[in-house]
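Gamma-glutamylputrescine oxidoreductase
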Amino acid sequence: MFRDGARKSIWQEEIKRFFSEEQIINNKMFDVIIAGGGITGLSTALQLQKRGQKCLLVEASNIGFGTSGGTTAHLNTFFDITFDEAISNFGEEQARLLADVGTEAIQIIKNNISDYQIECDFQKKTGYIFALDQKQHDKLKKMIEGAQKVGIDMKFCDGVSFPVSFVSVASIADQGQFHPIKYIKGLVEAFISLGGIILEDCMCINHTENEDGIISVETSKGLFQAASLVYATHIPPGVNVLHLMTAPYRSYAMAFEIEDHKYSEDLMYDLYDPYRYYRTQIIDDKKLLIAGGEDHKTGHEEDTGVCLSNLENYVREHFNVGAAVYSWSSQYYEPVDGMPYIGKLPGSTGNIYTATGFRGNGMIFGTISSEVISDLITEKTSRYEKLFDPGRIKPLAGFASFVKENASSATDFVKDKLFKEKINSLAELNDGEAKVVKYEGDSYAIYKETDGKTHVLKSTCPHTYCDVRWNSAEKSWDCPCHGSRFAVNGKLLTAPSTEGLQRIYFDEYGNEENA
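Predicted structure tokens:
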């Protein structure tokens, strides 16, 4: 299977294809169309199909192409928004509701594994959160107090080994891990067995809400219609208010051979900002340590390759590991008030739904989205409807972050030109090098391959016209405003843009022509 980056994640090798042939579609009217073939889309499609809905799932590339193929697949009952923060921002009642999410999502996963005999290396684990200094200890104490207020059994503990020196550690039982792509493959097979239809290489381009309540969905494989539409595309495509309420981030992961077996096989986290996280996984009968961290805003790191180097150096300093077998990065979205957006798409008048803003908890929130959205479609209500409402207005919670994130986006709109390297000729590029350059008054994103072939693109992202920046780790052009990403040849890798970068070539006289 392919993924949205040049580097292979640990999960890609074992599964090449999810199903053998494209399904035949005779009727283009469905109860629900789901856009997106990751854990959110497939979990939702399966849940709706089980409830008697006739569903079509469309995926712009292949199943698992996005973040689900690049996750580290921790299954937690605690989240990047801590329970003390949730109590402060949303009140104790809503924080208690949030406390149910992790347990319920893990149970949904376990039920799917049992019901459909999915072999996906699921294991129950304990999570350990390590405070490495006094500041982290104070934060951990608040985390524990908040968790205990809402009924989560998080507590200080002793007798836990960790190769990094620490001040204190908390344990939290009943966590989990699995192989995300094996799990998704099982969801695919279950969905198809129940009559669901999947179209790969089928991009959802646009939708129209008709007066009769039917939604027309324009895709790269034709026009389809449905009573409801679900955007499980990590961030809704096109331009929407949610793009102002979320910020795209990259996170990095590496899998190392383990030289000794002294390390805990449970889930481990520190409290740096950004934090690092660890787990193990057996691949080809070999146990590997998966380490993650070094997060940053998409398009805001000058050399993304350094992020992987920093992660590797830190792991080698503290852990006895051998070769780095895999290294990759993946994208997630930060909501301004810390809580995901799951429910009706703001600005829509009909039954259009979305799920985004999962932070680093995509496996859990992607899974619970299937329950929330399926309930909203079939029952017209959900116990989590208010908590995750994408249309919520929070004048206090997250306001400072909102201003900070969008001030950054505004800077990208207005001042992106200041970041460009001013060169006068394409010939100044070395093999394997990429730059955004000025050429005779216009702006281009240029990449020269090691064989000398040059890809020349207009540098403007079609989504909201920010200039893209080079991601050296994944060899992609990334938009710093809302997270659209593009291959070196301009092909769209990830939304919210629905178009690729415009390709340019030059005739023998140096005049530009559209490719």
